[in-house]
Amino acid sequence: MAGRISSNSSLTKLQALNGLFAIYKKQGPTSADVLNSLKEVLLREAGVENPNPRKRKKQSLKMGHGGTLDSNASGVLVVGVGNGTKMLTTMLSGSKKYVAVGQLGKATDTLDATGSVVLEKDFEHVTRLEVEEKLKTFTGDIMQVPPLYSALKKDGQRLSVLLKKGHKVEAKPARAVTVYNLTLQEFTAPLFTLDIECGGGFYVRSLVDDLGKALSSCAHVKELTRTKQGQFTLEEHALQEEQWSLEHILRALQPCPEALS
């Protein structure tokens, strides 16, 4: 009986959470998969038998994330819980920081290492100085075409899902995005490492693809890590999987402003 009271109390505390926190997303699963895993862990801890976070009916835990990270990417994933889900739109449009490792000489259909190679070009002529010069043209307010394989939707379905089903998908038109800071950290051809600070709607994969073309070669993203989103940083705020517990979230939670709660 005591155990049941304790678990009911945990569930009540869990369902009473309102605010934002950040978790670490590892490379491999989708952002939605990671969020479902988090829900499952928390509901189990609260004593819910066989929780199925994908069933939306009678959803016992209201949770969402503030911006998809590619399955091939890792790093900060901001999570909204309770009324905190209403604050996620500010996370989508807010600034983000990434560290990207690009590879010259090979382009893929997904613009990252998960895709099939669709083009190979020489890269021996590319120098560090040339990369640094070209990066200046991708800084500030720029126009960017989103990747075909993305979370963007057509007729309610994600473009990436439509492509995998064999449907023909047209590229979305170029749109305005902002790059606040863009620096070359390392260059050992064919690999190069970029430090990027950007606004909402920006795709690192598109940047690396465009950069490869601008260098008279081609390129794709080999590794991608989001190091900061809004006020949440990878080092200080992102809860690792072993910290996915009510206790850790209560400590990390940034509560909603009064107007939202």
UniProtKB/TrEMBL annotation:
Question: Which Pfam family is one of this chain's hits?
Answer: TruB_N
In this chain the Pseudouridine synthase II N-terminal domain maps to: 56-204
* Catalytic activities: uridine(55) in tRNA = pseudouridine(55) in tRNA; a uridine in mRNA = a pseudouridine in mRNA; a uridine in tRNA = a pseudouridine in tRNA; uridine in 5S rRNA = pseudouridine in 5S rRNA
UniProt entry keywords in alphabetical sequence: Acetylation, Cytoplasm, Isomerase, mRNA processing, Nucleus, tRNA processing
Query: Which InterPro entries does the entry mention?
Result: PsdUridine_synth_cat_dom_sf, PsdUridine_synth_N, tRNA_psdUridine_synth_TruB, TruB_C
Q: Which GO terms describe its biological process?
A: mRNA processing; mRNA pseudouridine synthesis; tRNA modification
EC id? 5.4.99.25
Q: Has the keyword Transit peptide been applied to this entry?
A: no
A molecular-function term among this protein's GO annotations: RNA binding
Q: Where is this region: Disordered?
A: 46-67
Q: What is its main location?
A: cytoplasm
Q: Where in the cell is it found?
A: Cytoplasm, Cytosol; Nucleus
Note the SUPFAM superfamilies from the entry.
Answer: Pseudouridine synthase
GO cellular component entries: cytosol; nucleus
Span of domain tRNA pseudouridylate synthase B C-terminal: 205-258
Q: Which domain of life is it from?
A: Eukaryota
So what does this one do?
Pseudouridine synthase that catalyzes pseudouridylation of mRNAs and tRNAs. Mediates pseudouridylation of mRNAs with the consensus sequence 5'-GUUCNANNC-3', harboring a stem-loop structure. Constitutes the major pseudouridine synthase acting on mRNAs. Also catalyzes pseudouridylation of some tRNAs, including synthesis of pseudouridine(55) from uracil-55, in the psi GC loop of a subset of tRNAs. Promotes the processing of pri-let-7 microRNAs (pri-miRNAs) independently of its RNA pseudouridylate synthase activity.
Q: What is this protein called?
A: Pseudouridylate synthase TRUB1
